[in-house]
Amino acid sequence: MPLRLSLLLFALAPGTALADAPPKVDFARDVLPILSDNCFACHGPDAKARKGDLRLDTKDDAHASGSIVPGKSADSELYKRITSADPTEVMPPAKNVKQLTPQQKDVLKRWIDQGAPWGRHWAFEPPTRPPVPGNGNPIDAFVQARLRKEKLTPAPAATKEQLIRRVTLDLTGLPPTPAEVDAFAADPAPDAFEKVVDRLLASPRYGERMAWDWLDAARYADSNGYQGDNERTMWPWRDWVVRAFNDNMPYDRFTVWQLAGDLMPNATREQILATGFNRNHMINGEGGRIPEENRIEYVFDQTETLGTIWLGLTLTCSRCHDHKFDPISRRDYYRLFAYFNQTPVNGGGGNGQTPPVIDFSTPDMETRLKAAQKSLDEVVGKLTPVEKRFRDDAAVTTKDGKYESKLPAVIESALRKGPNGRTDANQDELAKHYEKSEPAYVAQLKEFRKRKGERDAAAGAIPKVMVMGDMPKPRDTFILTRGTYDKHEDKVQPGVPESLPALPKDAPVNRLALANWVVAKDNPLTARVTVNRYWQTFFGTGLVKTADDFGVQGERPSHPELLDWLAVEFRDGGWDVKKLVRLIVTSQTYRQSSKVTAEARERDPENRLLARGPRHRLPSWMLRDQALFAAGIMTPTVGGTPVRTYQPPGIWEEATFGFKRYQQDTGAALYRRSLYVFWRRIVGPTMFFDTANRQTCAVKTTTTNTPLHALTTLNDTTFVEAARVLAQRAMIEGGKDDADRLRAAFRHAVGRVPADAEVGILRGALDRQRRLYSADRAAASRLLSVGEMPRRTDLDVVEHAALTAVCTLILNLDETLTKQ
Predict the structure, then answer these.
(1) Which of 7, 476, 585, 690 is 20 to 30 A from 621, alpha carbon to alpha carbon?
(2) Neighbouring C-beta atoms of residue 20, cutoff 10 Å
C-alpha cells in the first residue's frame, strides 16, 4: 500500500506526464469557430456554393468523406490538406487572405486525435442553469470567479453621487435631481440603493427610457420612407410600448401580442394594437413600382426583424441561398416568411394608413373634424352658385343642342370639377384667370384652400394604426429565386427552421403558433438573446458582443455560464423584465467604479471581463433630454402625437424636393422628451447622432466621436436654450454669489457638488465671459434670445449671458456627456 500510494502521488504530482497532458479540446468553443471562419464558405451549409462536393459542417458528411478520421489525424484528409506544402493541395487555398495559424492547426490535430467529438454551436444548445460559484448576487459570483481566474481585482464601489446618476440615467434616461442625490447620500441604510432602484422602476419615466431601444429594434418612425415618405400615425403603438414596460408586461406576452395579438382568442383592442409592431416597415409609394414587389419586400422585413430581435440570427442571408455559416436553409427562410405572407396588403400606393387599421380617434378629434368639415361646406356653398354663373354666362347651345363654352378649356374643366374635385393646380389656374375681374371670388378660393387644409389636418390627426390581419383564404408561398418577387420555385408551408426545436404537432398553421414557439421553453435562443440585450443596455456591450448575431460567425459569450444562468432565470421566472433589470443594476459588478487602472486598460481595454463599472458617452437622445431636465423645462407629458421641435430650415425640403415642409411646433411641445420627436424616416431628427435610422431593425447602435457631435451640443438651439434657462435657474437658486450660482448649475447637470478647485476654474471662465459681454451687450442680448422660452427680464443681461456661456461649458463637460 505505501508503494502504491507513493506511485499514485508521483503520478499526480505537478510536472509529471499526467499533469502535462494536453487539455481537452471543446468542439463548440475551439473547433467550430476555426471551421466556420476558414472552411464553411466553400464546404458549409450552402449547397450552391459548396466546392468539391465536400461538406464539413455536419459530422456524418465530414466522416463519410474521409476528411476526419476520429483518433487519426495523420489519416484525416482535413489535417493533410491544412498542413500540405503543395500550393495546389493546401487548404485554405494559398491565394486566400485568411490562413490558419500554427495554433489553429494544432487545435484541429489534437481534436481529431482525441476522437473528434462533435457538438453543436453553443447558441443552439438548450440553456441549462449552471451552479452559482459563490454566494450573494449570482451575477457577482460568476463575474468574480472569472476575475480570480484571470488574476484581476474588481474595482472599488462607485461613489454614491456617481452611482445614483448612473442608475437614474440608465433606468429613466434622465439625471437625478439634487434633492434625490442628497437623500441617497444621507441614507445610511444598507438597502438605500435598492430603494432608489425600486423608486426608479416604478417611475413612468422608466417605460419611456426602455421604449427607445425597442423602437430602434422595431424600426418605428412617423413616416413611410422612400422618396414619397408620406406620414403615418403609428404613435398609439409607441405609447402602448411605453405602457407595457411601465406595467412590467411579461416578455413572453409582450412578444406574442406584437407578433400575433390579432389571432388571440377574442382578441382585444389592445392586443390588436400591439401587432402594429409588424407594420412598422417602410412603405414604398414611388411611381412605377410594382405592388407585388413592394409587398414581398414588406414580408421580407417582417421575417428578418423577427430573426434579429428574438432569434439573434442573420436570416437575410437565406433570402437567396442557404446560409453559408448557420444551419438555416432557403426553405427554412421561406417557411418563416409564409407566416407573414397572409395579410391582405397588396403593396400598392404609399398610404401610411394602409388597411388593416385600427381607429384611435377621440371625441375631441371627431368634434374638430365635424367643425372643420362644416366650415369647409359653408365656403363650398358660396362658391358653387358663383361658379355656375361663370359657366352659364360663357355657355352657348349649338344648333344640335350640344353645350359649348366660351371659357378657356382649362378654366371650363376646373369649374366643371367643382371645389372639392379640383387639384391645387386647378385652383391656381382659376385664381389667375379671375384675379382682376372677380376679386371677391378669388378671395373665396383662398378661403376655401385654407379651410380645406384645416379639414385635411383634422382628418389626418385621427390616428389610424396599421395592424395585422390574415386573409380568409391563405396565400400560397413559394421559394423565390434570389429573392426575386416573381421567380417562383417550390411551394412551401409555414414552419420553423429544422435546426431548431419543432412546433407542437397540434400547432395551428398561423402566426400565433409561431409567436408561441418563439417563447417556448425549448427554444434555445430567445431568452439568451433577450437578456444579452438588456445587459448591453447597462454595460454598453452584451455578454455576446454581436447582439444581432448569435450564429457561428457571432462572438462567443464572454461569460457563457452567466449568460445561461440569466437566460434560464428570466425564462423560468415568468419573463419578468423589471426583476431582471433590478438584478443587474443591484449587482456589485454594476456598482463598481468605472475608474480604470493602467493594468486593467492593458489587460482588458473593452472591459469584457467586467473588472470595473460601465463608462460610455450617453446617446444623443439622452443628452437632449438631460439638458432639458437640468434646465427644468422638460414637458413631462407622457404619450401623444409626435412633436416638431427646433430644426435648421430647409432640411425636409431638400430631402423631399420641396414636397415636405417643416412646420415647427411652439410652446410646451418644443420641450417634450426625445421619444416623442417626429421621426421622418429619410432624414431623422437633426439633433440626434449615432442613432438607428429606423429603416430596418437595429438592436445595437454605434458610438463614434466626431467634431459634428460637439457642434450639436454646443450650438443646437435646444442646447443653447437649455444653457440659457439653466443659467436663469442657477441665478434664482444661487442668489447673488457667483460660487453658489455655479454650484447650482453644476449640480443640476453633473449630479454632484463641484470641488472648490472646480468652482475656481468655472469662476475664471465666468469672469472672462462677463468681460466679453460687458463690451458687447448686443451679443449678450442675441444669446439670450435663442429659443422660445421666455426669460426673466429682471435679470441683468450681461450677468445672464455670461452665466449662459458657462452653463454651455458645463453641459459639454466630459462628465456631463458620459455615464460613468
Answers:
(1) 585
(2) 8
Long-range contacts of 447-451 (CB under 8 A, 24+ apart): 447/379, 448/376, 448/379, 448/380, 448/383, 448/419, 449/424, 451/372, 451/375, 451/376, 451/379
Q: What's the angle, vertex CA 767, arms to CA 765 and CA 771, rounded to 5?
A: 120
| Sign of CA pseudo-dihedral 148, 150, 152, 157 | negative
Provide the pLDDT confidence category of residue 20 given band limits of 50, 70 and 90: low
560 neighbors 531 (Cβ within 8 angstroms): no
Contact 368, 494 (CB under 8 A): no
Judge whether 577 and 566 are in contact, CB under 8 Å: no
Residue 629's alpha-carbon distances to 359, 496, 635, 719, in angstroms, are 34, 47, 9, 11
- In the chain, the amino acid numbered 633 is I
- Who contacts 712 (Cβ-Cβ below 8 Å, separation ≥6)? 620, 687, 689, 719
| Confidence (pLDDT) at 47 | 80
Q: Which three cell numbers stand for residue 257?
A: 401580442
Q: With cut-offs at 50, 70 and 90, classify the pLDDT of residue 7.
A: very low
Amino acid at 212: W
Q: Where are the beta strands (DSSP E) in 310-409?
A: 357-359, 395-397, 403-405
- β-pairing verdict for 403-405 and 395-397: antiparallel
As a whole number, the mean pLDDT across the chain is: 93
Which residue is associated with the grid cell 464558405?
41
> Could you tell me if 552 and 227 are in contact, meaning their C-beta atoms sit under 8 angstroms apart?
no
Contacts of 527 by beta carbon, 8 Å cutoff, 6+ apart: 127, 567, 568, 570, 571
Q: Are strands 464-466 and 357-359 parallel, antiparallel or unpaired?
A: antiparallel
pTM of the model: 0.87
Element (H, E) at 477: strand 477-480
Cα distance between residue 714 and residue 130, in whole Å = 49
Helix (H, G, I), strand (E, B) or coil at 740: helix
The domain locations on the chain are: 27-119, 363-462, 715-819
**pLDDT tens by residue, 361-413:** 888 889 999 999 999 999 999 999 999 999 988 987 666 767 788 899 999 99
**Would you state the cell numbers that stand for residue 618, as one nine-digit string?**
450617453
User: Rounded mean pLDDT of 268-292?
Assistant: 95
